[in-house]
């Protein structure tokens, strides 16, 4: 945790601090049974692999680089998966992960944040639980129209929250320059959509979730 903060400017997320407090107090975490099917998953760490893999899953000839690597995570319980990594320090509480069932194509991905970590030091086995953000998303590119140079595209993950009342949409980014009221021009598939940032929240290490609304352009 200390090493991560030393190398990154942004503050830890509220969820991470709450998790650390609960574990420090010795409280058990009550988690939803996300993995009740007890099937293995492929996971990828970070927003860039989540973006690249969701798009590349539609291209059968695509071959990813090491940065877009997927790891096989085995079922441990209805709320935990486990991996054995060759390197140490790969997985941390607060990491954003994209995941899919092993019998699903690469494009069929969900987004979650690691909120529980159990390390077996002798075997190297790492068990982890997640907070599911969305079961489906779309990899997009966007431009910051308020910026001095608005021609630089950024990667983002766009999704709608079906559990919210009304039409609520979110754009997940690793860009901390956006602020409330900023205008965004988003490219999604072959469509161009204009958005306004209504609010923002840090949801994972190095990742911010923007609540956005559609803007009609004459």
Mean pLDDT: 83
Number of helices: 3
How does the helix and strand content classify structurally?
A: mainly beta
Strand order across the biggest sheet?
1-2-3-6-5-4
Shape: elongated
- Beta-strand level of the residues, as a percent range? 35-45%
Largest sheet at a glance? 6 strands, antiparallel, barrel
**What CATH architecture of the largest domain would you give?**
Beta Barrel
Number of domains: 2
Q: Return the CATH class of the largest domain.
A: Mainly Beta
- Spell out the helices and strands N to C: HHEHEEEEEEEEEEE
Low-confidence stretches: 1-9
Helix content: 10-25%
Based on CA atoms alone, the radius of gyration comes out at 18 Å
> How many β-strand runs?
12
Would you give an account of this structure?
This protein has 3 helices and 12 strands, in the order ααβαβββββββββββ. With 218 residues, the chain is mainly β. Strands 1-2-3-6-5-4 form a 6-stranded antiparallel beta barrel. It has a 6-stranded antiparallel beta barrel with strand order 7-8-9-12-11-10.
